[in-house]
């Protein structure tokens, strides 16, 4: 293949520009509270950080109290990470002895970041506390069962004023991945939750949304099939509609009608949330679908889903829906985006109006994390629960 001088110049210019987009990050950890035989590891959201595996990427011991390593990333990469001694049972704590949120920053230049650790978690020493907390009152319903799927726990959040207003009824938001939405202690290895309790507490007190009950449905080891358009996924939806919702409506002071009932989730929880809205539109009128896997193939995660065709092929009566859809622009979000684009096109083809029936928000700097979803959640709630 022959190149003109201009084409060759442009190719070399692009290559040089690409090379300039690489930046170096030096991570220094200062700590004296480790045994001589111990190592210090970094675990984070990038492959270079071990993709959150707590014992894969060891820092190099430079001297008695300093561990360090140098990494290279694309300029503009969002970094999120923690430090461990090889497992999450021995992760670094903050100065108060709490499990902290992720260290996080966007790297735009060559950077040296220094961290000082004086406390390490010792799982054998008992319970630790986490930065962040549960805001408001929660109730737990354990080991709820339904034929064909695994048992699961449910956490329920009550809005401010619930106990003081015995004659009042409330709209309800059902949320998938319930262990990750309210309590940082149960929210995965990073212990960062969606903060739906803080978000709703603030929005309710400001009068921006009506007081809302939140029902968080824990996932199980069968999360992928349960959150997919599979027989197991449809059984999971039947559990929520036929078992869980009647129980919630009987036990708590809800407004049971569809116009007062919404559902939310992210990733696989995003596609199942849309499926609830689409398949049970007589039960749910609103949905929040964050970073939704509407149409994506990820063999490494045994994910092969497509719900776009179900929308395109639908020929029945027009559904009454209000749906918030968003996505980030980093990492796995880029893999998800084509399916999101296809779903947005399908909704438009079916006559749904952007800005009225649905909206789409793109956060180009965001990754596929609870902290990113937490940041976008308040606006999502304001859209689906918009006050008239």
Summarize the entry for a quick read.
This protein is of the alpha/beta class and 388 residues long. Helices cover 26% and strands 29% of the residues.
Keyphrases for this structure?
4-stranded mixed beta sheet; Immunoglobulin-like; 388 residues; alpha/beta; Rossmann fold; 8-stranded mixed beta sheet
What does this structure look like?
The protein is of the alpha/beta class and 388 residues long. It folds into two domains: 102 residues, Immunoglobulin-like; 245 residues, 3-Layer(aba) Sandwich (Rossmann fold), CATH 3.40.50.1820. Helices cover 26% and strands 29% of the residues. Strands 10-11-13-12-14-15-18-19 form an eight-stranded mixed sheet, sandwiched between helices. Strands 3-4-1-8 form a four-stranded mixed sheet. Helix 7 links the parallel strand 18 and strand 19. Helix 2 packs parallel to helix 8. It starts with a helix and ends with a helix.
- CATH homologous superfamily placement of the largest domain: Alpha/Beta hydrolase fold, catalytic domain
Order of helices and strands: HEEEEEEEEEEEEHEHHEHEEEHEHEH
Oligomer description: single chain
Query: Which CATH C-level class of the largest domain is it?
Result: Alpha Beta
Radius of gyration: 23 Å
Q: Give the count of structural domains.
A: 2
The CATH architecture of the largest domain is: 3-Layer(aba) Sandwich
Q: What's the overall average pLDDT, rounded?
A: 90
Largest sheet properties? 8 strands, mixed
The total of helices stands at 8
* Structural class category: alpha/beta
Helical residues, percent: 25-40%
Poorly predicted ranges:
13-19
Strand order of the largest sheet: 10-11-13-12-14-15-18-19
Distance between the termini: 63 Å
